[in-house]
Amino acid sequence: MQRRFVKKADIALIAVVLCVGAALLIWRFLPSNGKTEAVIYAGGEVYRRVTLDKSADMTITPDTDPKVVIKIKDGAVWFESAECRDKLCVKSGKLTRPGDTAACLPAGIVIRLEGSEKRHDALTGRICS
What does the pLDDT average to over 23-42? Predict the structure, then answer.
């Protein structure tokens, strides 16, 4: 009598886990339903507020040292380039949902997305905007 290595219950459990994972990925990448606004801070003060909609296509270059270039296009905002040494801000990628944040600490620039969409913070367990 041979023992089965994989049982029917194991296959069912794997299928459920894969379905839940796929649903979470789909939910994460669906477009947001509400106005999202990028708030750009320079030196701790609000430098500019820009509404992210599909028609926005602009480049913002705050007067900072080191220089940074912020790009807004297709409902996303990101650091396109920076003259700082490590370029962590550029590597942070595109911000698309309320609550997303990126910063260039050497230049003192912070980008934070705000909006009407509520979002669950997996780290703290709270609902944030």
Answer: 80
